[in-house]
């Protein structure tokens, strides 16, 4: 599963391609084909993404890690995926020429 920094709709698509989760130019097609749905081969933004939480600047990354932890420990309630083994979180922020990006992979093999 993946939780990506999706401050804008296009950001999610660009990040899917930048991380190699979709081939360049195909993220929108993969999304429409259900690849990133809860029952797809790579569930993404299962909690609805940043905008569902008001995009809490400074806390976004922590919230994504918390969602990954909930999923991996089987505690995500109605959003619970079927037996997730790994989770990827991606967060970014900052201003021009002062950016930070964090990618975390959790779980076993």
Automatic annotation (TrEMBL):
Q: Which InterPro entries match?
A: Thiolase-like, Thiolase_C_2
Instruction: Please identify the protein, giving its name as recorded.
Output: Thiolase C-terminal domain-containing protein
Query: What residue stretches are annotated with the Thiolase C-terminal domain?
Result: 1-103
Species whose genome carries this gene: Neorhizobium phenanthreniclasticum
UniProt-listed Pfam families: Thiolase_C_1
